[in-house]
Amino acid sequence: MNNKLNDMSDTFYSLSQISSTRFLECIGHKLSIVCVFFLLATINVASANDDKFSLGLSLSHNQIEYSSPGNTDNGFKLDLGYSINDIFSVELSYFKLGDISYNFIDPEPIGITPPDQLSALKIQTDAWDVSLLAKHKMNKFSVYARLGWFMSNTKQQINFVSGVDQQSKLNDSALSYGLGAGYDINKHFSINLDHTVSETNDFNNGRIQITSLGIKYRF
């Protein structure tokens, strides 16, 4: 009798072990399936959010108006963008505006009282801009308007008739605005033409105008 009871208990124990193993295997399979579905969902979300970011490189033609029509120089622009939706995006831009020189005998534009008459002025400016863009897309073409905040860093060298030189650094920030247009070459690349204007206090309430043409990569 005891032997039969022992055999029955061994049988139940073996069945319970098999059931536990199968139960764990079943749970493992279900967890694997859940993980796969979660991974697929993550991939789908990532796919839905493709091409949210962009990188751009442009050549620019820059003009600084300095109480009168200003001189010009060439430079470049780098930008990083993020699309909020199909209409709105934000963009961070860096500008290298080059060297702009003036030759005149007039101290008034820069608001200083020099020891003698001013003969020349050389300006080196780079800047940052943060803008909100509103875009209207027409097939492969698009047009947009921008509104942002422009932050400039300027080194200026002032030469006087007597040969005395004066150097200074100016930091300024002001509202920026502009218009632009783009053409999509393919899903990731586009060509963009942009014109940005900033009213600045650095140059006796002057104005910086930047016209740029470049390529943008979306990812």
Q: Could you explain the architecture of this structure?
A:
This protein is α+β, with helices and mostly antiparallel strands. It folds into two domains: 1-49; 51-218, Beta Barrel (Porin). Helix content is 21%, strand content 58%. The protein has one helix and eight strands. It has one helix spanning 2-48; strands at residues 53-65, 72-83, 88-103, 118-138, 141-160, 165-184, 189-200, 206-218. The protein has an eight-stranded antiparallel β-barrel. A hairpin with a 6-residue loop joins strand 1 and strand 2 (72-83). The termini are far apart. Residues 34-49 have low confidence and may be disordered.
Pick out its properties:
alpha+beta; 2 domains; 219 residues; 21% helix; Porin; eight-stranded antiparallel barrel
